[in-house]
Design a protein that fits this description.
Length: 403
């Protein structure tokens, strides 16, 4: 146990420590931003993979607040020790569990490697014993590596272009000030492309759906979604036409395979194309920070759709409250606000001279930097960082009427 005053330890796009109260405050704010509705009726069972951050966390919170879901959230976080704080996702999960319990929801949080067969077994047993068949499986994992459960091989994803090298302006922060630098990426070789598909493609999603099917744990109207991204032509060389894009193609093809081969009429599988968001996963992608800052400048706070807004939108579509917004490839689209022609035209204009764009309007990069720091619980409005804080926080145990 250690109660202490802590200060951020940041190196570029990496912050190695997290603030428990700050992380809690970000979850609380996200929760408050989601307008509650009285769901009524039976509480659907949801399994959320990647529940401690980004889209997975937002979808979980929106499901709790608006649709009375119960079920299981899985993430892979670190408790910390005498010298290190826990990871931000650990603290966010503790905060999420409190909100779920206060809302009367029976939710269990599992901290384990979602790619491991042992985790699948543990989660399936938990579902069978406590919750029953799953109505919604949300697949929102983002990881730099995956251990193949069949072979034990560790695959490492890379963020690289395919075919030719890519040089792009990028956003550099030095002592909090934003400048424009350059990022040069050599093209991926075939093993790197294949490894990225192994990590971020649909192989593991399929294993989860097969496991639920095999265990007889598909709800009557079973629906599964996996998060995808298309993004702008501006970032396409490093994203959609790069290694990560190859993985997303695989994920999208997996949806088709799940529908035709695994579910075969016993449920629905979709990929969901969400818009740009500042998350731990996205800040690792070169040039995305600059693009997102300019996108923010183009849209302003009013036009920006948060992960919470999009999560609400997704649930409306999944529950049939409004029709599915499917594209020609059968993907659910939540990213119309980002890819609207007028928005992209404005970003492209700014991208022609990004240094001038930042000088003219520093609000975008400042916003990006704040969002980035908040991912780790830093600089969150209303949090007093002078107050010593307990950094050792227990992982939540399920507390509900069912326990
Ligand atoms: N961030 C964006 O701009 C954006 C846009 C559209 C789509 N997406 C997609 O959304 C999905 C989620 O991305 P994000 O940006 O929300 O990521 P994130 O980094 O915010 O969250 C990733 C989550 O995965 C969990 N996780 C990672 N490895 C794990 C493992 N081995 N076992 C269990 N849990 C593990 C983490 O604990 C965390 O909960 C990805 O498919 C991503 O491509 C992201």
């Amino acid at each position: 146990m250690s109660t202490q005053k802590i200060t951020p330890k940041q190196r570029g796009y990496l912050i190695v420590n997290s603030h428990p109260t700050g992380c809690e405050a970000t979850v609380e704010r996200l929760w408050q931003s989601i307008e509650p509705v009285d769901a009524g009726g039976r509480a659907p069972v949801a399994l959320v993979l990647g529940s401690s951050a980004g889209y997975g966390l937002s979808i979980l919170l929106a499901g709790l607040r608006r649709h009375g879901i119960r079920g299981v959230g899985v993430s892979y976080e670190n408790a910390g020790n005498e010298r290190r704080t826990a990871t931000a996702g650990w603290y966010r999960t503790a905060a999420t569990a409190r909100l779920a319990a206060d809302a009367g929801a029976d939710f269990t949080f599992v901290n384990a490697d979602a790619y491991a067969d042992t985790t699948r077994t543990e989660v399936l047993e938990l579902l069978a014993e406590r919750y029953g068949p799953v109505d919604y499986l949300i697949y929102s994992l983002a990881s730099p590596r995956r251990t193949d459960p069949a072979t034990g091989e560790v695959h490492h994803s890379v963020i690289k272009p395919i075919g030719e090298a890519y040089t792009s302006p990028s956003l550099v922060f030095e002592d909090g000030a934003a400048t424009v630098g350059t990022v040069e990426l050599a093209p991926a070789d075939e093993p790197e492309r294949a490894a990225t598909v192994q990590v971020m493609g649909g192989t593991d999603w399929r294993l989860w759906v097969q496991a639920l099917t095999g265990a007889g744990l598909l709800g009557q109207d079973f629906t599964t979604v996996a998060l995808s991204y298309v993004g702008s032509e501006i970032t396409a060389p490093v994203y959609r036409r790069g290694t990560i894009g190859a993985a997303k193609e695989h994920l999208e093809a997996t949806a088709h395979g799940l529908n035709t081969e695994v579910l075969a009429g016993r449920g629905r599988a979709f990929t969901v194309v969400a818009g740009a968001a500042v998350t731990q996963a996205s800040t690792a992608i070169p040039s995305i920070a600059l693009y997102t800052s300019l996108l923010r400048n183009s849209l302003g706070a009013q036009g920006w759709r948060t992960t919470g807004d999009q999560a609400v939108d997704l649930w409306e579509q999944l529950t049939g409250a409004r029709p599915l917004d499917l594209d020609e490839k059968g993907r659910i689209r939540l990213d119309g606000w980002e890819l609207a022609q007028s928005v992209q035209d404005r970003v492209r204009k700014l991208w022609e001279d990004p240094a001038a764009a930042l000088a003219d309007a520093p609000a975008g990069p400042t916003w990006f930097h704040d969002q980035f720091r908040e991912l780790y619980g830093w600089d969150v409005p209303g949090v007093d960082y002078q107050v010593p804080v307990e950094t050792s926080v227990p992982w939540p145990v399920a507390v509900s009427a069912a326990s």
